[in-house]
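Re-running the complex after MR caught last week's input typo. The corrected sequence lines follow. Everything else is unchanged.
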Amino acid sequence: MSVSSTPASAARAPAPRRLGRRQRQRLTRAVAYAVFAAVVVAVGALADWGKLAESFFRLDIAAAMFPEIVTVALRNTIVYTVLSFLFGLVAGLALALMRLSSIAPYRWFATAYIELFRGLPALLVLFLVGYGVPLAFPDVQIVGGIYGSIALGLGLTAAAYMAETIRAGVQAVPRGQLEAARTLGMSHPRAMVSIVLPQAFRIVIPPLTNEFIMLTKDTSLAYVLGVTATSIEVTKFAGDELNRHVNPTPLLVAGFMYLLITLPLSQLVHRLERRGARRG
Amino acid sequence: MTTPAIEISDLRKSFGSLEVLRGIDLSVGFGEVVCVIGPSGSGKSTLLRCVNLLEEPDGGSVRVGGVEVTDPDCDLDGLRRTIGMVFQSFNLFGHLSVLANLTIAQRRVLKRSRADAELIARENLERVGLADKAGAYPAQLSGGQQQRAAIARSLAMSPELMLFDEPTSALDPELVGEVLAVMRSLAAEGMTMMVVTHEMGFAREVADRVVFMDGGQVVEAGPPADVLGSPTEARTREFLHRVLTH
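Corrected-run output:
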């Protein structure tokens, strides 16, 4: 604070009415705080807290959702997410390698696939898998029933996104790594598996986590395939409760369930990144 | 007449319209140390990279131990096992510890057991003075230590010859000495070495032959005392003058 004495004495000189750099910074910050506080106060004052509590915070309705929302719905949401993520990861890796391949038709196919599935809404793809595949191939049963259909339906779209992410990761590994591996006598596939891909995956862990979180939320589309009491996931479960009680409290509980998955995940990745950074 | 370690004849290579190598003839005998010097852009690194086919030549022939490397039927992976290579940018595998950097190719390529590979790795780390760094990761090492580890990684494959591509150019000046010391002791052990370098002192002291390249051609080649001491070509004199008086 003692620093301000210098600009103040300078301000006494005839010409400058302009603020010093430090003063301007302080003023900008003060305005930013004031605006933020005003918004918070306005929202708090204008909201009808009584009505809100009545609608969204009915503890009796929330309590009635347990334990099924966890033992059935949350469990299914996690299973759907993990299955579609694994499918997307394997297919995405294959597509990424095809895009980087020296064989032109592989590149064409991968490019076409990625452009197509990135452009289609996940809901539509899920629908096509759920109802189109059984029509087109009446003798084919998708492995795992509804679980398989959802993994496939969401995984096909996720694969397109993950392929681009993984490709960028592979290209971010310096070319010298591959050259050094080849120089030691490793074949190209061996060098990819042992040297390039492990480093690429470390680079793409943050964006892949993003993909996982998006998939977690996309599992709320599973209802289009007609989930049953045992295969129900969080959003559908909450929606049913909402209709039954004509009260939106279940939505709040559902939101909490999603955070239960995503927040620890962010923490885990944060820790993985820090461990990676220490090694370089 | 014994087969030379490396025998290059009329080697040509272009990148697009840029002719980088314009008919190179060069041979390196077993046990010989050949230093390749020349201004940047003269094609010396490309020449080195053609020896183990990191660059595909457009014309001419490269024989390593009598085997034509440009032959499509040549077992390139098998041949590369016998040719160690050290890069300007070290290229240690960043996700692996120093020990794993030295063992991975031994185990995956030479199919040595873990115990054998680690034994050989530790011997070679000892050789370059890094016995205590086996558990470290590359990012934790100085540039000089990384380059010595990279040399040890090549040596662990028991190569018959070694290629060095400006091994000290990316190093801080005070770290150059430790890498050159390792290379000097390698040469003293009789390793066949082809070294692209800007270290004239090293070339003068260690090389059996110095090759001066400019504009994609070998301008002058011979014992270091001749090429560096009393060059016959004007271009060589000019280059040495610039390098030694900068």
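None of the earlier attempt is carried over here. Chain B touches chain A at residues 52, 54, 77-78, 80-81, 83-85, 87, 89, 91-95, 104-105, 108-110, 137-140, 150, 153-154, 157 (CB under 8 Å). Strands of chain B lie at 6-15, 18-28, 33-37, 59-64, 67-68, 83-86, 161-165, 192-196, 209-214, 217-222.
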